[in-house]
Design goal:
Layout lengths: L5 H21 L8 H18 L7 H22 L4 H29 L20 H21 L15 H24 L6 H76 L4 H12 L10 H16 L3 E6 L9 H19 L8 E9 L2 E9 L4 E4 L2 E4 L9 H12 L3 E7 L2 E9 H4 L2
Parallel strand pairs: 1-2
Antiparallel strand pairs: 2-3, 3-7, 4-5, 6-7
Helix pairs in contact: 1-2, 1-3, 1-4, 1-5, 2-3, 3-4, 3-6, 4-5, 4-6, 4-7, 6-7, 7-8, 7-9, 7-10, 7-11, 9-10, 10-11
Amino acid sequence: MYDFSNLFFYKFQFMLELIVAESLFLIHLKRRDHFIIRAIIAVIFCFGTSYCIPIVSYDPFYISVMFFLLFIATIAAAYFCFDQPFINIIFCLIAGYTVQHIAYSIYQLIMVSTMIDGGNSLMGYGSSQSWNFNVFAFAIYLDSYILTYIVAYYGLGAKIKNQADFYITSKSLLLVLFIVVIGAIVLNSITVYSADATDRRTELIVSFIYSFLSCFIALLFQFKLKEAKKAETELEIVQHLWKEDKEHYELAKENINLINIKCHDLKHQIRAIRMGGSTDMKNLEHIEKSIMIYDSIVKTGCDPLDVLLTEKSLYCAKNKISLTYMIDGEKLLFMSASDIYSLFGNALDNSIEYLRKIERDKRFIRLVVKEEKGMILIHIENYFAGKLNIKDGLPVTTKGDTKFHGYGMLSIKMIAKSYGGNAYFGYKNNLFTLDLTFDAKTSSK
């Protein structure tokens, strides 16, 4: 037989609060097939579990265990509905549970402080079978939960997008955060169970303030952990790209030097043949023109940029892309060779990747490096007809051209910052522009 006490009905209220709070963080995640059907089954399962878990004691420790079992049920339900790694599910559900308890603490803090309903708000954990409805108390309840959930969603939940990984690899640290939250909830259960709203009002107020602060700090720390791990992972990826760019630069430089040597020898051989008159002149002229492109080494005064531009010029010529430049390469010598190669390589690769897919008459890239008014300026522009948005200082397209928001652009920004410079991305009049600025005095040191 079920004891239809206040706590029995509160189980369902708690489950509803918890599902809504967890949904704030799950809503943007990738869903499994037939999501609507799965969600309906999951909700039925959660409320069915609420009904089935018996109330064998009103001891605060048993109540805490009961709430924990209800939380476990939502974990199974969420994993059933969302196609995400298990640790991502846990991350979102811990955040949801924390937000639910923050809202509960705020509501009870207001109620105990004002005593609007004479302390009846604390009767939810009780064994009595009466429920005194108070309009003002209900209004405060709705306001407390709705406002808390709105702030939690727009402050944190909306930042969780459809990602394959939240970069959370420290499972032990996530467990510690969960234990902190559970500890606050258990302490709250003990206090609510043993304290009378009238006689021990101060004790209750202190307890709810503690519950609010501990859960709030844990929630902020949880998301700071996520962002810090994301930044660390992105840095590792960019550093790996820089290493690859450095190796690519050395290989490209070596290959171009070998090509130059071969072409130089070929020109001498052709000249000797031409002077001997033993070969058809038209064929010789054709051969000479064919190898001239390999002898057209770019000379800007910056060796790594010369290697890169020579390599990219050949690729652009092959793909009918016009690459023009006005470069004072000596202004770039404050940067390492690998950084120069990586910075300009990423910028040109993004432009080339887009241009080779459009009409030939719109395939152009313009590159300028100069010093002006005490600043070293780098300007790169190319035709671009897509829709471009800037987020977190980096360009984002809405037509699936995700290279404009890839690690290449992040690498450019990080390299500029490492030399005290700034990177600006823009779009106007069908031109995508990249501008980098460096202080000439600082760069010359």
